[in-house]
Design brief:
Blueprint lengths: L15 E2 L32 H23 L5 H8 L3 H29 L1 H21 L3 H15 L1 H13 L2 H33 L2 H21 L17 H4 L40 H4 L11 H5 L3 H8 L1 H27 L9 H6 L2 H14 L1 H13 L3 E2 L9 H19 L5 H28 L4 H47 L2 H14 L1 H8 L9
Antiparallel strand pairs: 1-2
Helix pairs in contact: 1-6, 1-7, 1-8, 3-4, 3-5, 3-6, 3-19, 4-5, 4-8, 6-7, 6-19, 7-15, 7-16, 7-18, 12-13, 12-19, 13-18, 13-19, 15-16, 15-18, 17-18, 17-19
């Protein structure tokens, strides 16, 4: 009997058969195993045509770009806020921290509704609220109004930090997710880094209020796209009466079935039972949903309404009981917190001698980060997806999520170098190119490390990903808010050089956690398997991997 068809040893969530042993990577010859297994229903988003997936994902990319633009362009106009509205640097830091606080809380409010009622209504409501806040920001005249708009736009914009990754899982397979998450992060980078460049030009030529005028126009277009073109990706399969199989059997289903191929033996070790069925192709006898059904405002899961409230506290249970989730929260949270410090310090220090930058110059300072993020996308996206297929082949067709982490070690080590280079260069008044190189290096690290870490999490714990992402987003934005609140007194106490010495050293400590996770990650997954099973049973998601 061919034992290579089995996954040996204790059950570890995320360990799956991705290729048949003995065949080289490729596509179209039947050896690549689709994970998660799609149903035979043509309405299943995993079975959608490339064109339908492209349209849906493009709308999401546009949404992410605009949301992160409106969240990050405020720093360009800090000089104008001070001169026209009489605000202080301390007050402006508080408005940024208020936005981060809104982002932290927003996921707790919105994501449970996306699990119960579908992704579509949450995206539409989020975009409409953010549109209203953008219009208000173009008209505001006081510090109180700015704090209010920042908090509310943070609450509504929080959807972009978690629900997009959940939607990627709805439509794409494991061997595609690194690239898709990478494209999402590129859109985030365009909004976060190129958005301020364009906003600086607009603020200089048309006035700062028109920064938000243009984002209002683009958000209005996005609302229309969501209402008339975005299809629901939450899939509720029709019940089937068949015998469920264990994950070891389920992972042996391939694109092309071979009746002579040995089935392999079931594992007797603890495992998660899942109702996953061999994929034999799309059943075209099942009718396609009408356009009205595909664009329905809600897609409701028949579960008690009380389950929504469970998902307001369950993310924190997952956060402290699953090591991979805790790692991603600390890692991703610290990376974005340090980026917040960089952006705030750029707005404050580069308008002073020896730099004397105007709004255009401050906006252009985002270009190095964008360039670094593009390189990071290639590293953490397509290169990561290619590497896991290659490593899977060397492992007899068995995929381990830790395979993604090998490529994350280099960006984890080089990221703190970028922080030191930017902080020391700016504090010493070096030529502007020196801090910009540091920001570019750190931008590469953020995207490459963030992409691989988030995809590792989705590969390992798919069934609890919604709650896990809520916990990560909460920690990430809470950390950013706390650091930005503390940044001004921290800098006054030890100076800019001392500030970046501290955060650079802290970054080293957080980043090297990738090494023990790469080595012992599978052992952690095995130890957490029973806990994961209990948590998975509490989820809305009807499709198990």
């Amino acid at each position: 009997m061919d034992r290579s068809q089995d996954i040996e040893g204790p059950f570890a969530p995320g360990t799956i058969r991705l290729e048949r042993a003995g065949l080289s990577p490729g596509s179209g010859d039947g050896h690549l195993i689709l994970q998660p297994q799609p149903s035979e229903d043509p309405n299943d988003p995993l079975n959608w045509s490339k064109w339908r997936k492209f349209v849906n994902f493009s709308i999401l990319c546009f949404y992410s770009l605009i949301i992160f633009t409106i969240l990050d362009i405020g720093g360009v106009a800090y000089q104008s806020y001070i001169s026209e509205l009489g605000m202080t640097w301390g007050e402006l830091n508080i408005t940024f921290a208020a936005n981060c606080a809104g982002l932290a809380v927003g996921c707790i409010i919105f994501i449970p509704f996306s699990l119960k009622y579908g992704r579509r209504p949450v995206y539409i409501v989020s975009t409409i609220i953010t549109f209203g806040m953008s219009v208000w920001q173009a008209k505001l005249n006081s510090y109180g109004e700015m704090v209010a708009t920042q908090v509310i736009s943070g609450l509504s914009g929080a959807v972009s930090e978690t629900l997009v990754q959940m939607t990627v899982m709805d439509m794409f397979f494991i061997h595609q997710r690194g690239t898709m998450n990478g494209i999402y992060l590129v859109m985030v980078a365009i909004g976060s880094f190129l958005g301020p460049v364009a906003s600086g030009l607009i603020a200089f030529s048309e006035g700062w209020r028109w920064m938000y005028g243009w984002t209002s126009i683009l958000l209005g277009v996005n609302v229309i796209l969501f209402i008339f073109f975005y299809e629901e990706t939450k899939y509720v399969p029709k019940p089937r009466i068949e015998s469920p199989v264990t994950p070891s059997n389920a992972t042996q289903s391939t694109i092309e079935t071979n009746p002579t191929e040995p089935k392999g033996e079931n594992r007797t070790s603890q495992n998660l039972t899942s109702a996953t069925y061999p994929f034999k192709g799309v059943n075209h006898d099942i009718p396609m949903k009408s356009r009205r059904e595909r664009l329905a405002f809600t897609t409701t899961t028949k579960s008690p309404f009380s389950m929504i409230f469970r998902h307001m506290w369950q993310p924190f249970v997952i956060l402290v009981t699953i090591p991979a989730v805790a790692y991603c929260a600390v890692q991703y949270g610290s990376l974005l917190a340090w980026f917040s410090v960089i952006f705030q310090s750029e707005s404050e220090y580069f308008i002073l001698p020896p730099y004397n930058f105007n709004e255009i110059g401050i906006g252009l300072l985002s270009l190095p980060a964008f360039i670094g993020c593009i390189v990071g996308f290639i590293w953490g996206g397509p290169l990561s997806d290619w590497s896991i297929i290659w490593l899977t082949k060397r492992n007899n067709g068995i995929y381990e999520p830790e395979m993604r982490l090998y490529l994350a070690i280099f960006p984890a080590l080089i990221g703190p170098v970028g922080l030191f280079l930017y902080g020391y260069g700016t504090a010493a008044g070096m030529d502007w190119i020196i801090p910009c190189i540091g920001v570019g290096i750190f931008g590469f690290s953020v995207t490459a490390l963030g992409d691989t870490s988030l995809t590792y999490l989705s590969d390992s714990y798919r069934e609890i990903l919604g709650d896990a992402l809520v916990g990560i987003a909460f920690v990430r934005n809470l950390a950013a808010a706390a650091v930005v609140f503390a940044q001004d007194p921290w800098t006054q106490a030890i100076g800019l050089r001392g500030l970046f010495t501290c955060i650079g050293c802290i970054s080293i400590g957080f980043n090297i956690l990738i090494i023990p996770l790469t080595i012992w990650g599978k052992k952690f997954r095995i130890k957490c398997a029973k806990r994961y099973a209990r948590l998975a049973e509490r989820q809305f998601d009807p499709r198990a991997i």
